[in-house]
């Protein structure tokens, strides 16, 4: 589960606000991974400005709590717990990752993407990840600061950091079990109201995508994947034929240029 650079090539595009993200990727020995990688490359060439290259993935959540001064333990713990959680979640007879229509938003990271069908397994998993590794650590730290202000000071950059704990200093514990119960509903609301699972095809600042470019996109997807009218809502009913089970979970540090993103660790599921 060591660090590795993503195999991507891109101009200097800065990213912010993603922190450490959890990706779900198809395994490389699956045909769907090759198909997605190829069609992403074909679509990349029709957008101006040499958009960055990246591997096919679905973002489960962002801003997971990882100590970047010593990330190994956190990375191994998170990946192990995530893999165990997936084994326990209920599965249906259909693949729990099914791709739908191609669509676009104004957002850079959602410029062109496949929608992901609303399978309960994926949403339950995302909810668990958001609760345990995003909301709970942030709330626990905030509560600890409130209960133990004497244990914190500001560093030279103005950031609030913990002092070294001495024998004389008394520390008030935080009831993480109570916090987790309180945050369960917040994570559930996030999964229903905010989570938008998708598989990005192109990152770009281009807006809007004009009629001519959409025509080219449809032709590229039809020619290579055989999906006619790839932006039709009908593909969100049963899927467009691209699907997979399990895959590879990756923790990715998404800071700086896209070509500087680093895979901190991964595990097959």
UniProtKB/TrEMBL annotation:
Its EC number is 3.1.4.37. Signal peptide: none annotated. One of its GO terms (molecular function) is 2',3'-cyclic-nucleotide 3'-phosphodiesterase activity. Pfam families: CPDase. GO terms for biological process: cyclic nucleotide metabolic process. Involved in the metabolism of ADP-ribose 1',2'-cyclic phosphate which is produced as a consequence of tRNA splicing. Belongs to the 2H phosphoesterase superfamily. CPD1 family. This is 2',3'-cyclic-nucleotide 3'-phosphodiesterase.
């Amino acid at each position: 589960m060591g660090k590795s650079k993503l195999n991507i090539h891109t101009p200097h595009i800065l990213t912010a606000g993603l922190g450490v993200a959890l990706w779900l990727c198809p395994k490389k020995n699956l045909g769907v991974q090759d198909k997605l990688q190829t069609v992403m490359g074909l679509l990349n060439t029709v957008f101006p400005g040499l958009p960055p290259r990246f591997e096919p993935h679905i973002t489960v959540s962002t801003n997971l709590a990882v100590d970047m001064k010593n990330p190994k333990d956190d990375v191994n713990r998170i990946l192990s717990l995530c893999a165990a959680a997936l084994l326990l979640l209920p599965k249906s007879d259909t693949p729990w990752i099914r791709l739908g229509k191609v669509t676009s938003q104004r957002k850079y990271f959602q410029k062109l993407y496949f929608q992901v069908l609303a399978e309960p397994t994926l949403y339950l998993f995302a909810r668990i990840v958001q609760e345990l590794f995003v909301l709970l650590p942030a709330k626990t730290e905030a509560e600890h600061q409130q209960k133990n202000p004497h244990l914190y000071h500001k560093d030279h950059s103005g950031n609030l950091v913990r002092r070294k704990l001495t024998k004389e200093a008394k520390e008030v514990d935080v009831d993480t079990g109570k916090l987790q119960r309180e945050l369960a509903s917040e994570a559930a609301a996030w999964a229903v109201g905010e989570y938008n699972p998708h598989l990005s095809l192109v990152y770009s600042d281009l807006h809007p995508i004009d009629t001519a470019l959409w025509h080219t996109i449809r032709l590229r997807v039809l020619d290579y994947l055989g999906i006619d009218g790839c932006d039709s809502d009908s593909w969100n009913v049963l899927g467009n034929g691209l699907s997979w089970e399990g895959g590879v979970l990756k923790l990715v540090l998404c800071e700086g240029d896209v070509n500087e993103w680093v895979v901190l660790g991964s595990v097959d599921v």
